[in-house]
Amino acid sequence: MHRCLELAEIAASQGESPVGSVIVKNGIIIGEAYEQSKQLQDITRHAETLALLDALHKGTHPAGATMYTNVEPCLLCSYAIRHYRIAAVVFMKHAGELGGTREPFNILTTDKVQAWGAAPEIHIM
């Protein structure tokens, strides 16, 4: 989580929402990123989606990995997390009504989409 907070500081220094994300698999960081939606003028450039892309671009599939992020993944990021079959998500702060664990749009935790398989474990620090 320490690295997430460092990345969040970088995001904040660039005028972005202070969010950082790190993906760990077998004890190794395979992807990391910070929020870049404003900088890249692309709403999909959240820290979590960019961390997933970073892992994929480095040649490591994130299935079975743990994602650390300082803020609860939103609905957009939750979809990507489920698609790539992240095994666990650890975060520090809830995102409010747009958070992926919140009813009625709890994309991150629902068991109603069979194509995604089991929901990731959720850990709140």
UniProtKB/TrEMBL annotation:
Any one GO molecular function term: zinc ion binding
Gene3D superfamilies the UniProt entry points to: Cytidine Deaminase, domain 2
SUPFAM superfamilies tied to this protein: Cytidine deaminase-like
Domain of life: Bacteria
TM helices/strands, residue ranges: none
Pfam families hit by this protein: dCMP_cyt_deam_1
Name of the protein: Nucleoside deaminase
Naturally occurring in which organism (per UniProt): Chitinophaga solisilvae
